[in-house]
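User: Protein folding is very new to me. Would you mind checking the protein record under this note? It all follows right here:
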Amino acid sequence: MFSIISAAGWPIWFLILASIITVALIIERSITLQRRKILPPGMLEEVVTLHRNRQLNAEMVGRVERSSPLGRVLAAGLRHEFESREMIKDAMEESGRAVAHDLERFLPTLGTLATVAPLLGLFGTVIGMIEIFGSQNAAGNDPTQLAHGISIALYNTAFGIGVAIPALVAYRGFRSRVDDFLMEMEQQSLRLVDVIKGIGGRH
């Protein structure tokens, strides 16, 4: 590994840093964006049951809110259950925007890394080309410097692509997962609105 880093030259350190950040973000998002943490199974049914049995008080709503991102959205609607349907939906949408912002955390950074990594590889390639041209002198080419320049160019190109591909795949995957979560969250929120306004809620 150290011999590869040495052969790749100093530009490779930027790609190594980018790869470390990419791996850290992929691990963090993989742990955070788990369905059971975002959309706990049975939560809507539990909230509906508590609402129908008139067991929802301020403490219980607070527990729902702290339980998960879905709970935050549902709790926003429960706090406005005696308002109009539009007011309940507006409160849920506002909470949903905050939840969406949290779920999308670090995704722009991951997308940026997917875009920047090939450019960093290209930068290393250019540095390698400079080394290659610098190997030429009046006596001919310096084989050592020529080989070093080629190594810099090739290793940085390969590393740049190697960082960009998983970063892009992860970004697209997490982006799709977040969109699916938000869509289902919206559907469950609308179902709760129907329950609230269909059972004892005053218009």
Observations:
- The mean pLDDT is 89.
- The beta strands are 136-137, 140-141.
- The chain has one domain: 1-197.
